[in-house]
Task: structure prediction
Amino acid sequence: MLKISSKVLNYVQGKDLCFVVDIEKIPINCDCCNTILKTPVTKSLIETEVEDKELYDTYEYKGVKVFVLKDLKIVGDMNVYQKAKIPFTEPRFGIKGIIAQ
Result:
């Protein structure tokens, strides 16, 4: 089940925005190991900017679409929320209920 917080809904409605959840790969190199940390990252885009829509599963909540990369695993209810806002910057968003494998 998908939920989007009211603060996020107020921001995106009327702007024709959607959310895209991708994988961000962060290399970790230290003396003991070399690995790549995979973490989900949420972006807000205009729907026409989403490329390769066949790579995503599409969900919708109150007219707002959320595209989730098929490589991600849904482990519970998905909840899109707004992260703490830094003054003079665009809002940043996160999603709960999804992990990168």
Q: What stands out?
A: The helical segments are 6-12. The chain has a mean pLDDT of 90. The first strand starts at residue 2 and ends at 4. The two ends are 20 Å apart (CA to CA).
